[in-house]
Amino acid sequence: MQNRNILNSFKQILGEYCAINQFVELSKRSFLADHSVLLTDTDKFAQFANNNSITLTYCDPLKMVHSISLSYIVNVHLCFETFLKQLYQQIKDYGQNQFQEKKQEESWLKSVSKNINGERFSPDIKPMYALCEYYRLVRNSAVHDLCNVETHSSEYKRLSDYDFKKDTKYSKLTAPNSYEKISFDDFILFARSCVELATYLYENCEFDYIKIVADIPNQQLAKWKKYKPERRKHSICLYMKTYFKVDTNFKSQLPNIIRLILARSSNG
């Protein structure tokens, strides 16, 4: 088991991907500053690549520059969807409420949201949900629709219902943009929205901690049994906080959790 809950793991991995995206963007801007003339001359561009021991399998410099920005969206989506799949599984295994299986036509975000709050969002969360669903579609086009790209212009137009400039975190960004104009600012907007939305979803899911205890390894249960009551309680809380989360629901279930742990460790 990883040594952090899925939200903290997502934030760490996304941060690493973001750093890579930032390095690529820095390299791109440096190249454009020194060699922008090559973008309109494919022969010179290919020769420049050969001079640097790179043999290009495709040569359309302007399209490649745009594709770099699309790759940022792909990377962020990869991290976010991995988190959503993990959260979906945790809700399925340990959720307190009745679980609804994901339908094939649903996105992972829609399915997770449906199981947490029935897709009912506060006014400050709705824009982030719309953004993440839009950038998911951008990602799909960037990865799958190589021959006949669907730009999802109708979904992009729906974003005009929200004023992202009101939020100080987004006010300086020139985003969101249409598919043909996806930029580095879109990557920043998507990454920040993913973190906020992931945090909201994770903090609002309700776990049945009795179900979680049923899956805790016997070796861990045996350790807790040896502890004195106060140390045992503290260790259990720390364990749940590390791998899942601790909320009011956990605190109300804690006496039953301790009794179940002692019973399981005795039977084991």
Detailed description of the structure:
Helix content is about 65%, strand content about 0%. The chain is mainly alpha-helical. The protein is elongated.
Question: How would you summarize this macromolecular structure in one to three sentences?
Answer:
This protein is mainly alpha-helical and 268 residues long. It has eleven helices and no strands.
The CA-CA distance between the termini, in Å, is 21 Å
Mean pLDDT: 91
Regions with little confidence, pLDDT below 50 for 5+ residues: none
User: Helical content, roughly?
Assistant: 55-70%
- The number of helices is 11
Class by SSE composition: mainly alpha
Number of strands: 0
Strand content: under 5%
Largest sheet: none
The string of secondary-structure elements, in order, is: HHHHHHHHHHH
Record the SSE blueprint.
Layout: H1 6-35, H2 42-51, H3 61-94, H4 108-117, H5 126-144, H6 153-158, H7 184-204, H8 209-214, H9 218-226, H10 229-243, H11 248-267
Please tag this protein with its features.
single chain, 268 residues, mainly alpha, 67% helix
